[in-house]
Design a protein that fits this description.
The chain is α/β, with parallel strands linked by helices and 600 residues long. The chain is built from 21 helices and twelve strands. The N and C termini lie far apart (57 Å).
Length: 600
Amino acid sequence: MQEDKNQHTFHVPVMGIGFTIDTPVKVAHYGISSVMSLVDDILVEKMREFYSKKLDLPFSPITEKNSSDHRAERITAYLNMVDEIVHSKFAELKRSIHDTGEEVQKYIDMLPDFSDVKKQFQEMIAKNTVRDDIAAWIDKHLHPGSIDVNIMTKLDKDNYRGDAKLPNEFNDAHAALRGYAQSTLRSCIVFSAGMNPRLYSYIEKFGDFYPDETGDIKKKIILKVSDYRSAIIQGKFLAKKGLWVSEYRIESGLNCGGHAFATDGYLMGPILEEFKKNRQELIQTTHDIVKEALKNKNRPVPASPLPIKITAQGGVGTAAEHNFLLNYYGLDSVGWGSPFLLCPEVTNVDDHTLDLLCKAKEEDLYLSNISPLGVPFNSLRGNTKDIEKQELIDKGRPGSSCPKKYIQLNTEFGERAICRASREYQNLKINLFGEKGLNEEERRKEFDAVVEKSCICVGLGTSALIVNNLSTRTEGPGVSVCPGPNIAYFEKVVSLRTMADHIYGRTSIVNEAYRPNLFVKELQLYVDYLKNMIDETPKPFTEKQMKYYQLFQQNLDEGIAYYKQLYADFEEKVAVLKNDVMAELEQIRHELHEPAFANR
């Protein structure tokens, strides 16, 4: 079984489509793991051409004309190139010990101070160990970070060749999975946005996802989940196919970036507690199932359960919070997303958006309805994609030309799906208004709801083109950005080393004067979310709606009780919280039970 080579206790999650599209090229040789999106094969192809020219690598374009499987082949070619670049940069880093040693020192400096690797290196330097011995030690102990990829399972639209619908394996997510499976990468694939049984069944076709005789899996599966129930259901589903889930990545439902898949009032602390309590049961249950499935497939069967990592992300902002999650809940890593948007060494953020992010306050960050998926979407006021969208509305031409078509999922107007942000869809919807006999107020409300949808599959990738001076002629210059609420407390552009120092408590770059604890912030977001749902629901409530709101409130109450018990029982942990955290929790609880709220 291959050893776990991760030496950092943080990872860089996927952000948008283009913000982390080449992050492994920038950070993996320093031992930092990160995740790239596989949504946009057009952007992937442009980035492959960009790096080929920059590094004088061979490049042959993959087009719809010269390939019947162009999406998968583009992804494979790009991932192979990233793999080659990362390992070349890492080899160069190791060789630097014979010169200035600056790159090796940067790798070591960024490690947490408790790292055994860091301590051993410092001891060797202090003893003036000969360089050849240090080089041999480096070769054995330093490793690049994992080059991971993300597939959003819901983005799995059917594709066509002319008018002929292609088989399922040419669906977007299927093709992306195949592109990864056929690459040279030894890493992980993250599946987000819930279970897609058809896609999960397709994984069975690729041998790299199964353990070998030693228990090693070349390509590991990570599930991004919102609660334990989702984890055990998906884990068992895959286990029945002989597929092992190597990591469950828990993300806050609301205190995160991108799409917000809100739970029914279940808070992150209690969810993490459930994983902590049931971790061994999760491992043993899925091991028993996967063992039988592998046996039936005549594949190697691990004698003992394979490792499972539990990680989390969403709203973490201080070293104290980071360490608390690791130490109390036993997490293997913590994802730091939005703060890295202020780190140009790591992410692709254009100057205008970078300035907006630095200046953003709590009131500039909000949950919007702009996503064509119909899922709440974290937005930043003043982003250039929203400005571009409004200009088209003002010209009487609402909607996008839909140049990339990745969210063509709506079949309201025919079997062949279209996107709710497209000009075609919005015109069709607006033309129906006359048949509905709406008054002016009703018409304006419905019009606003239709044209609010934005072309995020383009907007979330454009920044990577702008930063790298690539043409945006097809896409347009508008940039969508989807930071989590946590970005409001980070106010300046920083280097990768400074960010690592902040995560590990060697410096602080967060404005802690008015930043609430991550659990308190999430709780407030959920209270606000519940209030907005209630306010926007036509009265009187149906019995089903009332039961749902009561369940939501009950789950929040239980979450508050959990936190109060947690911090009462573990007084030493209170150091990670602001002094008034308990008062904040109590205030929110009272707010939930105000007569005006409860009797609505």
